[in-house]
Specification:
single chain; alpha+beta; Bacillus phage protein; three-stranded antiparallel β-sheet; 6 strands
Length: 101
C-alpha cells in the first residue's frame, strides 16, 4: 500500500476527513491542519493514543510492532527505529480504517 493510501485510511480510522494530499506526503485535514504521522513523531503519537494502539519497540533492531486486537503491523527497523515506529503505527491505523470501509 502506498503512503497516500496509508494516510487516507489512518485518517479515516480516527474520523478525520481530509481535503487535500500534499505533494511529497501528508494530508491537509478538514480543519486545515497539515498531518503526516509517517514523518512527524507528534502526529504518530497522537494517532497511536487516539486509537489505543499498542507499540512494542525491541532493543535488538528487529521489527517494530504496533497493533490493536486484530489490527497488527510489523515494520523492520532498517537503521531508523523512529521511522519504523511511525510507519508501524500508521500501518496499524490504516488496517483499522480499512475495516471501516
Amino acid at each position: 500500500m502506498n503512503d497516500e493510501k496509508l494516510l487516507e485510511l489512518a485518517a479515516k480510522a480516527i474520523g478525520e476527513p481530509y481535503y487535500e494530499h500534499v505533494p511529497g506526503g501528508g494530508l491537509y485535514l478538514s480543519n486545515g491542519v497539515y498531518w503526516n504521522p509517517l514523518t512527524d513523531d507528534g502526529d504518530a503519537l497522537r494517532l497511536a493514543v487516539k486509537l489505543e494502539v499498542q507499540v512494542v519497540i525491541p532493543g535488538d533492531n528487529k521489527d517494530v510492532y504496533a497493533g490493536k486486537l486484530l489490527f497488527d503491523a510489523f515494520e523492520p527497523v532498517n537503521g531508523d527505529p523512529y521511522a519504523a515506529t511511525r510507519r508501524a503505527i500508521v500501518s496499524a491505523a490504516a488496517e483499522i480504517g480499512r475495516s471501516m470501509e
